[in-house]
Amino acid sequence: MGKASVELLEKLRAAGTAQVQLIVRTTDEPGRYVALLKERGIEVRQQFRLTRRMAIQGPAAACLSLVQEPWVEVLEEDRPVHTWGK
Amino acid sequence: MNTAKIATGLVQTMATTPAEETIPIIVKYRTEVMAAQKLVAGVVPDFRYKLVPAAAMRVKPADIHALSEDDSVAHIWQDLPVHTCLQDSAPLINAPAVWTAGVRGRGVKIGIVDTGIDPDHPDFAGRIVAGANFVPTGTGYRDDNGHGTHVAGIAAGDGSVQGGKYRGIAPEASLYVAKVLDASGSGMMSWVMAGIEWAVEQGVRVINLSLGGPAPCDGTDALSETCDAAVAAGVVVCVAAGNMGPRASTVGSPGCARQVITIGASDKLDDIASFSSRGPTSDGRTKPDLVFPGVDIVAPRAKGTTMGFPMDDYYTKASGTSMATPHATGAVALLLQTAPGLSPAQVKELLTQTAKDLGFEANTQGAGRADVYQAYLQAAPPPEEPEQPTKPEGCWQAIQRALGMGGRMP
After folding, report:
1. Beta strand B84-85 with B73-78: parallel, antiparallel or unpaired?
2. b/e string for B340-352 if b means 16 or more Cβ within 10 A?
3. CA B285 remoteness from chain centre
4. Contacts of B386 (CB under 8 A, 6+ apart)
5. Which of A48, B49, B163, B242 is least enclosed, having the fewest CB within 10 Å?
6. pLDDT, tens digit, 9 for 90 and up, residues B130-143
7. Catalytic residue among B89, B253, B266, B322
8. What domains are there in chain A, each with its CATH number?
């Protein structure tokens, strides 16, 4: 697998301008790239400190272009989680 | 009617049940053959048992009357609802023996990353130190689902509403609550990651994650790596395996994370719950790591919520690896009070090495069902050697010392 799964790449290609929520892992301090993302219309929803990651939201096409960036290590979907009890 | 064959409670139930209504019963026959053949006309049994010659069915009072007079019938019981109180599950993992040693989690900070908590529930009085909300539409950490309160109660409720009957595993631990799931019990990975970071920054020693996403996974997703990073920061992370069993490879993220303690669910008979997710992970690692009781657990209910099967205003009954996991979290708190210097890896090793092997394969039970007291005995520092009393210096030794003389006392 490259920087993103085949399924995610296909999903982003198909989604066009629709808003998507992703988590991106960077090669170094994520805060350095907030402005770059903003220029592409991508909002940083959360910056994490335990790992070099950010939760982002933006147009699918803009997010797809991130896989070309050398500072992007991994791009993955921000997936739903739920409780395991009832 | 042969009342000698009918359980006392059932006789009373028959007396108050209208003739056309059915009563759930268990009939024990004198022989196995009878168990298979001798049934009430028109009644399809719910279960036929193999270990004992018996069958479960729902019949009218008159049918029970007739069954009691049948020579092939040995006994008739009412089929009653069963549940596992914390008063049952805590002894099963030997927690009370640790409490008797004076260890109840005091001073240990537990992070509950879930749907929030009912801050007014008396079982947590004075022990919720901090809370924060990470649900974008939320405002506070009050539990609007009920799951987080139940989970927190299993880990650290003191059971005060019922005089200690529903006491959690570490009833004196401190609670730090991150609300990361909404009123429906759902959220996003990024919300959970933010909650974990907050809990680590609060200085918690153990985090409970009774939540998860789709399976299978290999432990490299963002949420799993965040959990591993929390462990690297010195925090024990207990994660529910999931409720997608009994199929193989059903442990989802973050249960598939490498460094966490992944918890499956057992019942009070030390059987594995069928719903408990099984390993291996998609990269071939064994999961879960351990099992704890997680079937029909009665624990605190958040005010105004209906999660599980409410027993009264203060308690509700629920099942899942969500309920097994806070048993582990509470157990970890007991160990960390006992030996604060333990690393997350040492805690995991203690619990797995002292677990009771239930005889299931590793990807079903992990190391087995935990025994907190055995783990505690391993963690507890050995009793200090009593200091040898020094012999008081006698007159002759004093003279020798003063004159710089050696030698023995005459």
Report:
1. unpaired
2. eebebeebbebbb
3. 24
4. none
5. B163
6. 999 999 998 899 99
7. B322
8. 6-77 (3.30.70.80)
- Of B147, B174, B296, B371, catalytic: B147
User: For chain A, how long is the longest CA-to-CA vector?
Assistant: 44
Q: d(Cα B211, Cα B192) in Å, to the nearest integer?
A: 9
Contact flag A78-B115 (C-beta cutoff 8 Å): no
Q: Which of B188, B233, B241 sits opposite A78 (nearest CB)?
A: B188
A80 touches chain B (CB under 8 A): yes
Q: Which ipTM was obtained for this model?
A: 0.93
Q: Is B147 an active-site residue? A: yes
pLDDT digits (tens, 9 = 90+) for B288-305: 999 999 999 999 999 999
3 state SS for chain A:
CCCCCHHHHHHHHHHCCCEEEEEEEECCCHHHHHHHHHHCCCEEEEECCCCCEEEEEEEHHHHHHHHHCCCEEEEEECCEEEECCC
Residue B394 has pLDDT above 60, yes or no: no
Cβ neighbours of residue B43 closer than 8 Å, sequence gap 6 or more: B57, B58, B59, B63
| DSSP secondary structure letter of residue B248 | S
Q: Which two tokens stand for residue B314?
A: 């203060």
- Interchain contact B307–A (C-beta under 8 A): yes
CA B372 – CA B350 distance, rounded (Å): 9
Residues 188-207 of B with CB under 8 A from A: 188-190, 192-194, 196-197, 200
Total-model pTM: 0.79
